[in-house]
Write a structure and sequence with these properties.
alpha/beta, 7 strands, about 35% strand, seven-stranded mixed beta sheet, about 170 residues, single chain, about 35% helix
């Protein structure tokens, strides 16, 4: 019994002392081909954050292209905005209270924006989340990688990857 209690106390101690590498200051690489593209990208990312925070699967899917590829932190891949919408509406959002999604977007912090051409940009960001579980029992730190592409006058997310950020090793 003492061994079980000692292991439990060690786990609690580890969880309360979780430490992560510092998040770098936000940086923008390059610039949009036209100024209005930067504003359009900002609007799209705000639409994504608003839709996610309200657990609106349809609106999240609308920020993605019809052939988008979305990969969650566990390596599950969804192809197409319809497949993504179905997963969010039927599996992910119903399993968690809306406060979890709101908190994720309230804590959303961009890390970088890289203009790779006149019609594509990569955005990296992170957040904390109570969704799922962290190995140490603390809130999960989550990394987002978004690839956006312009088609005509519209910007859409064409690829999104979500991954867990591991705790710092001593």
């Amino acid at each position: 019994m003492r061994t079980v209690i000692a292991i439990f106390l060690a786990l609690i101690s580890t969880a309360s002392n979780a430490e992560f590498y510092p998040v770098p200051n936000y940086i923008v690489y390059g610039s949009p081909a036209i100024r209005s593209d930067g504003d359009a990208i900002d609007r799209l990312m705000q639409q994504f954050k608003t839709a996610w925070a309200s657990q609106d699967a349809s609106a999240v899917a609308d920020t993605h292209s019809s052939d988008a590829e979305w990969t969650n932190a566990f390596g599950r891949v969804f192809r197409g905005s319809e497949s993504l919408e179905e997963f969010l509406a039927q599996d992910l959002f119903p399993d968690y209270p809306i406060e979890v999604s709101r908190s994720e977007m309230a804590n959303f912090m961009p890390i970088s924006r890289r203009y790779t051409s006149s019609d594509s940009v990569v955005i990296q960001a992170y957040t904390t989340s109570g969704r799922g579980s962290a190995l140490s029992g603390t809130e999960r730190m989550i990394f987002f990688n978004f690839v956006l592409a312009k088609s005509g006058d519209d910007w859409k997310i064409v690829h999104q990857t979500i991954s867990d950020i591991r705790e710092r090793r001593n």
